[in-house]
Amino acid sequence: MKNRTAIRPTLFIGIAAALLLIAALAVTGRFFLSPLLADLPDPGDGSTAAQAEEDPFDAVFANAQASAIAEAALRRHTSPAVLEDVEGVTVELLPVNEYSRPGEPLEDVNAIVIHYTGNPGTTAQQNRDYFASLADTGRESVSSHFVIGTDGEIIQCIPLNEKSYCSNHRNRDTISIECCHPDETGKFTDETLESLVTLTRYLADSYHLGEEDVIRHYDVTGKLCPLYFVEHEDEWEALKAEIFAS
């Protein structure tokens, strides 16, 4: 009994001291930590959302997205749909029909595709008239926005805000140019080349296209078209360089 009585007051004193220490620490901690806690965002006050909006990565992404939209807008019809006021171009639009002029909208222009007709010795007018005849014959589905003849004449067959049937799956976003040639080699005359350079340069400027956006039918499907420029890669590169020469 003697030992238990002696221990009890000491225990009470220890407990009381511990409680006083805890209370003191709580007051002191609150005093020192309150300024720090005040700076922490309240989950309900919108601070987190505001910080997310100011995230630099989000800003970079938004700017890139805006630039892409602006560039796409530039590639939409900054050129007239029909080039009746462009020197050297004769406008003879095909009748709207399911075989050569479907009348479907061309929303964007992302490239210009160069072709050769593949029928040596024919004229631009003959090729244009063949496209028009398909409305009656339904023989095949084919056409082009432009045909350039061996004398350099240019005929526009389809408005630039409509699709042509010339470049397979790229019909949806390209302008097509068919070029006549005098023989089986597919080599263009100087007059054809001169008109091709002038027309392609005009279109590239109008739709803000670069050298990489002027392509061959070969680059779309692997077809040997335009034949001469598939077999002579150096000549193709020289042609593009001439188109974009300042």
Notable characteristics:
single chain, 246 residues, alpha/beta, Lysozyme-like, 2 domains, six-stranded mixed beta sheet, 8 helices, 6 strands, 10% strand, disordered N terminus
In terms of topology, how is this protein built?
Elements: H1 2-39, H2 47-53, H3 56-74, E1 89-91, E2 111-116, H4 124-137, E3 146-148, E4 154-156, E5 174-179, H5 190-207, E6 214-216, H6 217-221, H7 227-231, H8 233-243
Parallel strand pairs: 1-4, 2-5, 2-6, 3-5
Antiparallel strand pairs: 3-4
Helix pairs in contact: 5-8
Question: According to CATH, what is the topology of the largest domain?
Answer: Lysozyme-like
Gross morphology is globular
- Largest sheet descriptor: 6 strands, mixed
**DSSP strand tally:** 6
User: Which CATH architecture of the largest domain is right?
Assistant: 3-Layer(aba) Sandwich
* Mean residue pLDDT: 82
* Rg measurement, Å: 37 Å
Describe the structure in your own words.
The protein has 246 residues and is of the alpha/beta class. Helix content is 48%, strand content 10%. It has 2 domains: 2-74, no CATH class; 89-243, Lysozyme-like (3-Layer(aba) Sandwich). A 6-stranded mixed beta sheet has the order 1-4-3-5-2-6, with helices on both faces. β3 and β4 form a beta hairpin. α5 packs across α8. Mean pLDDT is 82; it is low at 1-12 and 27-54.
Summarize the structure.
The protein has helices at about 1-40, 45-55, 55-75, 125-135, 190-205, 215-220, 225-230, 235-245; strands spanning about 90, 110-115, 145-150, 155, 175-180, 215.
